Amino acid sequence: MSRTVTEQPHAHRPEHFTSDQVGWLPWLAPLTEEELTPRHREALVNETRARMPYFALLVRDPDALEARTRTDFDIFHNTEGGLSRAERELAATAASRFNGCVFCASVHARFATRLAARGEDVERLLAEGVETDTGDALWNAIVRAAVALSRTPVGFGAEHVEELRANGLSDSEIGDVVNSASFFNWANRLMLSLGEPERPAEKERVR
Amino acid sequence: MADDLVDRLLGIAPGSVLDGVRATRPEARTNAQRSYESLLEPADPGGVPRATRFLVAAFVAGLHRAPLLTEHYTRLAADHAGEEGVRVVSALTERAATSGPYGRYRELGLVNESTDGPRYRTPEADRPVLGAATASALDHAHLLVFRPREAEPADLGRLVDAGWTTTDIVTLSQLVSFLAFQIRLVHGLEVLSQRTEDTRS
Predict the structure, then answer these.
(1) Distance between CA atoms of B188 and B23, rounded to whole angstroms?
(2) Which Gene3D superfamilies match (chain B) (predicted)?
């Protein structure tokens, strides 16, 4: 193996999907703070991201990272109209669970839980997988749509639109389901292929 | 108004229902286009040639059986990489297309959810035409499209061995991952455009 690639032989992977805090270890070298130019700092959008290995690695291509970050923020944080933020996070969690991204699923399960106060339903989705009954017809429809959007070839069809609409979603809200699930097919692939998840240290976990 | 590839491919006209849906997330719309431009039409392609970018895009769109984007990227790949490269990649796409996601889980508690499927490598006979670097990019693209959860450090090592730098690998990873987003966005909006509130009788 070349020295460009860092294996992480001592990493402790989580053993399951979890909503606990999970770390992420890169397989390629992120830029150090000293290596960051003004353009890199601008492309990080949020300054604190300079210390996060995932973003400090992606910033090696600053234009791609900046456009990706601004896409992400609008899809998930713009509160003007559209789907509730909890349901956008549900779509992100379902896509991540289906694709197998333990790190992404942990982050967005926590967001979904916090925004919707439905922790048990989110935990069941993580533990049992995307076939689980979330206990709510709209949530089930969003999970099914996110999974269909995540298949290759893409399996999303008129029946998914109809199910979302039957549960009260407007065109713009369905647009948010499409945006959220599609975006996580981007995020999952980067997280899964440029590094790996790591359990928090023992002492942190028992706290 | 500035050109927007997704709007153009789907024929989204100003004032239409889909225009309204996209206008709800204006920054996402603008930055999906900027992502496209930065990854496929960069002012300075750096270490990843435009020919490689478009051949990878044609391959990824073809693997998804996404007609609008396959047509778009195949045409641009022919412009940048030539007809022979496109012919080889189109033939490889036919042989390499399958259904995903699948793959072995590396998490111990999830091994019973592991599923198997084809692992692609560009055949030796096709590698001289494409070059070792582009061939390795296609290999990695297939991994990211169909079995991203199986990715390992050794997969990045193969890209390094083919001559890609760390920054090039970030760009190639962003390219394939962005395409996974763009293909789903176009697909989802197209389905929605046929089933909007107005079009339902």
Answers:
(1) 16
(2) AhpD-like
Residue-wise pLDDT tens digits, B64-76? 999 999 999 999 9
Strand ranges (E), chain A: 23-26, 195-198
Q: CA-nearest residue of chain B to A71? A: B28
Same domain, A32 and A57: yes
Q: Nearest CA to CA, how far is A114 from chain B (Å)?
A: 23
Range in B2-6, B43-47, B111-115 with the lowest mean pLDDT: B2-6
The two structure tokens encoding residue B38? 């930065």
pLDDT for B166-186, tens place per residue? 999 999 999 999 999 999 999
How high is the ipTM of this complex? Answer: 0.97
What's the rounded Cα separation, in Å, for the pair B152 and B125? Answer: 26
Instruction: Clarify whether residues A151 and A66 are in a common domain.
Output: no
How many domains does the structure of chain A reveal?
2
Instruction: Name the pTM for this structure.
Output: 0.97
Q: Chain B partners of A141 at a C-beta cutoff of 8 Å? A: none
Nearest CA in chain B to A7: B153
CB contact under 8 A, A171 and B181: no
* Domain CATH code at residue A151: 1.20.1290.10
> Who's near A40: CB < 8 A, 6+ residues apart?
A31, A59, A62
Residues (pLDDT < 70) of chain A are 1-2, 201-207
